Amino acid sequence: MIVVKIGGRTLQSNLEGIVDNISKLVEEKKEKFIIVHGGGQEIDEYTRKMNLEPKYVVSPSGIRSRLTDKEELKVVIMVLAGLINKNITHELLKRNMAAIGLTGLDAKLVEGKKRDKIIIIDDRGRKRLVDAGYTGRIDKINKDYLTKMLEIFNVIVLSPIIYSDDSPLNTDADYFASRIACELQADALIYLTDVDGVLINGVLQSKIALSIASDILNKIGPGMNRKVIHAIEAYKCGVKKVVISNGLISEPVEKALREQGSVITGD
């Protein structure tokens, strides 16, 4: 089973190409897939259409993330669970894939708790403790349900919205994908993005050894460093192959499986 995380910009530019490639691998190789998708740009677009302004914060380690308040949570659910998830699922069904689109909330597939406070760097460069809003930390993944569903469906499309007793919660899609891959001990975790992989000064890093991974985080952008952190977590927990690769090229999943991109390796 392969977990593929697809970023929002990549989906907007090459959804059909990615779905074609996944469908080919299902038909020819009998592979099973869990697709985890983002959608940051579209969330921002629809947030503004509702006369709200998206909020982002930066952590002390340089990771930029969405700060989801109660009103924006409504937009997140509408865009991720509705618009984007169903668009992907529809494209798979058009290709006669046995596919289903869900969120982590459905059937309590993914459970967690609201983060309490987070440390951010404010506009003055100072550390501040702020309310984390409706952002969740994953505590439990229903491995049995997902495993049984993969016996029925070739492809499960998951939005990174999770269940909590208080309310649905938003989670980072890179983190969500890593946790799913870890729990199910996926054969591979692929992050499809809009660049060739991890770039330092414009040069592709084809191999990222665990021993040097932490040293490169401050040399890459805030979106990519988050991917590297969660890619490392997946590799450490036993996922056999972890690749950050370009989703805008032809046959992007196959090429990632052939290790075209940035591959996490042991020391």
Task: Tell me what you see in this structure.
- This protein has 267 residues and is of the alpha/beta class.
- It has a single domain, classed as Carbamate kinase, CATH 3.40.1160.10.
- It is built from eight helices and 18 strands.
- The protein has an eight-stranded mixed β-sheet with strand order 5-10-2-1-13-17-18-16, sandwiched between helices. Strands 3-4 form a two-stranded antiparallel sheet.
- The chain is globular.
- The mean pLDDT is 95.
Compact description:
This protein is α/β, with parallel strands linked by helices. It has helices at 8-29, 40-49, 70-94, 143-152, 173-183, 210-216, 222-236, 252-257; strands at residues 2-6, 33-37, 56-58, 64-66, 99-103, 110-114, 117-121, 127-131, 136-141, 155-159, 161-162, 169-170, 188-193, 199-200, 203-204, 207-209, 241-246, 262-265.
Q: Give the domain tally.
A: 1
The whole-number mean of residue pLDDT values reads 95
Radius of gyration: 18 Å
Main beta sheet, described?
A: 8 strands, mixed
Give the class-level CATH name: Alpha Beta
Q: Give the termini distance in whole angstroms.
A: 25 Å
Task: Report the structural category.
Answer: alpha/beta
Estimated helix fraction: 25-40%
**Oligomeric form of this entry?**
single chain
Number of DSSP E strands? 18
Q: Walk across the major sheet and give the strand order.
A: 5-10-2-1-13-17-18-16
CATH superfamily: Acetylglutamate kinase-like
